[in-house]
Amino acid sequence: MTKGGMESVEVFTTEGKGRGLKAQKEFLPGDVIFAEPAYAAVVFDSLTHVICHTCFKRQERLHRCGQCKFAYYCDRTCQRAAWLNHKNECSAIKRHGKAPTENIRLAARILWKIEREGGGLSEGCLVSIDELQNHVDSFGEEEKKELRTDVESFLEFWPQQCQQFGMQFISHIFGVISCNGFTLSDQRGLQAVGVGIFPNLCQANHDCWPNCTVVFNNGNHEAVRSMFHTQMRIELRALNKISPGDELTVSYVDFLNLSEERRKQLKKQYYFDCTCEHCKKQLKDDLMLAVKAGESKPSADTVKEVIQLSKDTLEKINKARMEGHYHEVVKLCRDCLAKQEPVLGDTNIYLLRILSIASEVLSYLQMFEEAADYAKRMVDGYLKIYHPNNAQLGMAVMRAGVTHWHAGLIEAGHGLICKAYAILLITHGPSHPITKDLEVMRVQTEMELRMFQQNEFMYYKMREAALKNQKIQVMPEPSNENAPSLFHKKE
User: Fold this and answer.
1) Domain locations in the chain as residue ranges
2) Which of 90, 320, 339, 353 might form a disulfide with 328, Cβ 3.0–4.6 angstroms?
3) Side-chain half-sphere of 117: how many Cα atoms within 13 Å?
4) What is the pLDDT of residues 407-433, one digit of tens each?
């Protein structure tokens, strides 16, 4: 079954897992298997005035819709592109007096589209919205209560003159949003800014060690001629060589968790038991729980004690970060590392979590040499655990490279930036803003490295002068959020 640009994949059904996607031809790492525009998408409630409602880019100055005073756009191009989807919403917000929550807005956009196009297959979709999983039957009491509240709020917002839908179908749409909502990120890919429904992507099953990754591409509306404009879309990209007939899989959760934790998370959020090879055989769990090797191997009680201390410290760190007490975070990390280092192995996830936070916060505080040391150890651990073409690994290696550059460690910095660039070329592609930024850094550090190799003394003199004249680039404030996860789940 293929349709509109989806000729390279087919939907198939397996026992136990339901529908999935299969490759129809061979793909190599970095190939785009398919790109899919959103069936419907909305900006998160907290960011509606700082993110463009069409391309989901974060912009300094946005144009506000003069009618509803709610929607914001980069420019007239984005505003015109949005009108088909915003038209009904615009008049409903004016009539209602205020905009409802993101869930209600997304459900309304889906139902307006069904009203316009019918509930069957949309162009380029392999399955219809009616056929998507909703898992409403698996909802717990709390989720059912939230669903009832959402349906009531929706009915208050939904205009009388529009097509009326039955309660069961409205509940189905909210169930679909809850299980299949995909996280949309800003152009740097660092912050989750919205949620969208992509019916074809929803067909890709989970694997903790997948052969594909998904990247959100904000599109380009800035080209002078509109024929070169590209719309916002997700891209499914190959991570390995994929043969015809292979199932296409993506990971719904971050791999950097023990198999038991990943399975719990998947069961709670997506209502299935993961049976992938990495979970069944608990592959890499030994690395993630590694203890110090050598003659004086720590006792089981000591290991248990240090892991509990690590968990308690992570809670204290979260509290201090929320309050912006970054020097307190650094102290907590240093104290915890002093206890972890004699006991935990260099790939232990509790050690890696503390190293990650310490390097990020110290970079922000411009204590780059100490940050670089922790970042290097973090990356060394990640490289032994993550899939070699994992997007989160690429981002972590990039951050470590920038930290080394700030610390004046040009050789290590350039090496890490090249490594990150090789990963992100596969996971994000050459035209993604993150990859383009990284390419600029790669060229600059290569030039600096040549200068350093020719005359070390002159290199440091010139670097010192350049940093004096130029306002040092402050690292972004540490985020309390993890990297955006693949599917958006209302907590």
Assistant:
1) 9-250, 287-468
2) 320
3) 18
4) 999 999 999 999 999 999 999 999 898
